[in-house]
Amino acid sequence: MSNQPTINELLERNKELAKTYTPKPTIAEIKSEGHPLPKVLVVTCGDPRCVPEQFLGATAGEIAVFRNVCGHVAAEIPFILYMDLILHFDEVMVVHHTDCGAFQFDDATVRKVLKVRAPEHAAKVDEYTEFGVITDLDQSIKEDIAALKSSPLMRKELVSEIRGFAFDIKTGLLREVEA
Ligand SMILES: [Zn+2]
Question: Where are the coiled-coil regions (predicted)?
């Protein structure tokens, strides 16, 4: 039996935490009071073993973080473009990690499962070309850096400051992967 919390249990925690909550500044307050904005955007996996604030020793607000399956950038590009308009990032870190769940299945297996689930929508399943699956950690990082760098809508100054890293969940260390 799992002891992991349900939504309702989490809502109870939220009520308790709100009692000692410190109000956050609005964007208008951030601008007028001169609060520092994050200069580094980290795109990484949503895996609970891969939490950038932990492995980078950064507090919330020091870095901007996008997390999804594996830490792929392609689906995030519109959001990166938007957030960069607001925050004007200086650098981007693309971080994938060892033992990622994205190694577990291949695209064909995912498609097969979905087609069994909804055979009447098999054609729709084929429209999804990728599910974030990876087979080679370094290659995955290199492909994502290339995807971001080749986006014609990215700011040129930012494109030259995109770096890729592999996070080792056993040592806690980041290893740079050259594009
Ligand atoms: Zn992962």
Answer: none
